[in-house]
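Progress note, sequence design subtask.
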């Protein structure tokens, strides 16, 4: 049975700067509603120190939101920095008279700032922010369904939960692809690049290489049984034994025969090789039977 890992956001604590930043912001306590209201009144009066106090008290919430947008080829610390910009914008724009907490208002500005940074920094072709938000939501639903169903969910299953059409879900995934440099690291803190992971179809795997070498050895051995003229024709038709590949006209001229007769000799030689090959396999089979 396939084993699935929990779909959780992991903070990159291996990065010393992030660990230091987390310790620093944890020193600031969360404000009470009354303290928030007093700060907001002071901010409306133009007090920049009040803005700083409101922002620093809510920095931990930015980290929590930024972790939701990890693995988009943008470092977590960069996401946090962009989220902090949105937090500062929200601190200036917040209206405490509306009757809700500051973070409920700020979360939208934080997300908008992060999404904008992702769109501008990691895509060669910019796409609308709502498209990125839709992709983030679709990925989150997809991860949850994968844990539940123990397989990749279909667009229909994702669309049913999100309340969107299958076409819209398909559009999110189709247009949400990222452009990644082949010279960038394939894994975090790794010297292996994406270029190193590409399959080289011109290079044979060791098993195929051994099989081909074995076949060429057998083929060259069997060709030696043929008359010299037929050996010459096959070697220059297929490039065996390092011989130059020639055209039928060139081969016919070199053996002083017509093009049609050369073609006949070629197929006669190939049929002879097939008979030799089948005969050898039959002998090997009889030896194994004994």
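Output:
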């Amino acid at each position: 049975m396939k084993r699935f890992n929990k779909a959780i956001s992991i903070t990159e604590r291996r990065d010393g700067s992030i660990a230091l930043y987390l310790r620093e912001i944890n020193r600031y306590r969360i404000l009470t509603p009354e303290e928030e209201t007093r700060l907001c009144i002071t901010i409306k009066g133009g007090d920049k120190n009040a803005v700083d106090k409101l922002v620093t008290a809510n920095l931990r919430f930015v980290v929590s939101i930024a972790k939701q947008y990890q693995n988009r080829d943008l470092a977590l610390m960069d996401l946090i920095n962009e989220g902090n910009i949105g937090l500062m914008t929200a601190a200036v724009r917040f209206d405490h008279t509306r009757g809700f907490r500051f973070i409920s208002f700020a979360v939208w500005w934080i997300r908008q700032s992060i999404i904008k940074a992702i769109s501008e920094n990691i895509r060669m072709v910019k796409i609308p922010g709502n498209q990125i938000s839709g992709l983030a939501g679709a990925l989150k639903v997809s991860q949850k369904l994968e844990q539940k169903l123990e397989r990749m969910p279909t667009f229909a299953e994702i669309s049913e939960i999100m309340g969107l059409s299958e076409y819209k879900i398909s559009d999110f995934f189709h247009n949400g692809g990222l452009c990644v440099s082949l010279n960038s690291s394939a894994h975090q803190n790794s010297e292996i690049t994406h270029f190193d992971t590409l399959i080289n179809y011109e290079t044979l795997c060791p098993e195929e290489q051994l099989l081909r070498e074995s076949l060429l050895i057998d083929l060259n051995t069997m060709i030696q049984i043929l008359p010299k003229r037929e050996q010459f024709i096959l070697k220059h038709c297929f490039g065996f034994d390092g011989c130059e590949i020639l055209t039928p006209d060139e081969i016919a001229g070199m053996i002083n025969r017509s093009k049609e007769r050369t073609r006949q000799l070629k197929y006669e030689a190939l049929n002879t090789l097939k008979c030799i090959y089948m005969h050898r396999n039959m002998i090997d089979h009889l030896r194994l039977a004994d």
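The CA atoms of residues 182 and 196 lie 8 Å apart. Work on this subtask will continue into the next period as scheduled.
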